[in-house]
Structure prediction request, 363 residues.
Amino acid sequence: MSLPALSGWFPRGRGGGRRAGDPARTGSPAEAPTQAPTQAPAEVAAWAGAGPPAARTAPGAAAAGWETARLTGQDRSAALGGAARWEPLGMSAVTPVLDLRGVHKSFGPVTVLHDVDFVAYPGEVTALVGDNGAGKTTLVKCIAGIVRRDRGEYLFEGRPVRVDSPREATSLGIEVVHQDLALCENLDIVQNLFLGRERRRGMVLDEAEMEEVAADILAGLSVRMTGSVRQPVWALSGGQRQTVAIARAVLGDSKVVILDEPSSALGVAQTRQVLELVRRLADRGLAVVLISHNMNDVFAVSDRIAALYLGRMVAQVRTADVTHTQVVELITAGRSATLEQPDGRPGAPLGADVPSAAAEPPA
Ligand SMILES: Nc1ncnc2c1ncn2[C@@H]1O[C@H](COP(=O)(O)OP(=O)(O)OP(=O)(O)O)[C@@H](O)[C@H]1O
Prediction:
């Protein structure tokens, strides 16, 4: 497979693609004085998980979308010399596609997700990072209805929804590309793309229509396959398979695409091609959630980073506002020496003072 090189390699830039009226994306706190009000400490603490779920909602934030906190660009330079400052964002003018609040999940006695908040916006790549066992896959399974959360709100495009099965998630336009890709090796590209949703003309499959749509969707994603769309998947490279799996995810009316480690088995060139495709999906307005352990990939392609540590969301920040080192610290320690907690304490693990789930009364 060869992909045309994107001019400028991610020309939108991380954290770019500003939307009119979205102060959260302007990059400068000074540009958004009216829509990013300072929060009372109690509200900020609630973000960190110390408050009850009800306290997590900022006043009036339900419809407009609530962002958690960020390290401002202004403070970034300060971060180099000392403790940087977290600043609550208040409300964004753009409603998140996904907005999960206080999601809690246990498997028997083991609590895997502790009151996790997570948002994903249209037109953005949100990287979901965390060490092995942090709870990334479980959170994604909750989003995709594969696993039922014990409690927690689930808003889709600002509306509360019930997502208790994969079918319900799919009907909302949420697609997951799992690590194993779930492609059928013996089937060709067209058959894989349309598996389970074949186009028919009367009683027979409309092969010509499916071929045309397959070619269109691959071309629409700027994907050029060497060879026919009728070649079997077993004959494709790892990058090409990933592309087919992603194309299948966006074939319907998808609004959210979640990619689980899409480049984990790929070489340098193929990783770059897949990341270009990931960026392109977001540029077309999809909300893309990217699970990755690879910080280079995360920084190359994401607009936001959500960091899970031992089942707690310890930060959800703009990629442009944090450094590689800070994110690694968040992943490995649940805190960063150069990031303050929202309540002003420097460097303490966020949510570390939250009572363990085992000690909490049942919901
Ligand atoms: N069905 C289950 N039953 C019991 N424990 C589970 C189940 N699914 C996940 N866990 C546990 O939940 C924790 C989080 O797992 P999860 O797969 O969500 O982490 P992850 O961040 O995706 O890790 P990795 O990066 O290694 O894939 C792990 O300790 C795991 O053993």
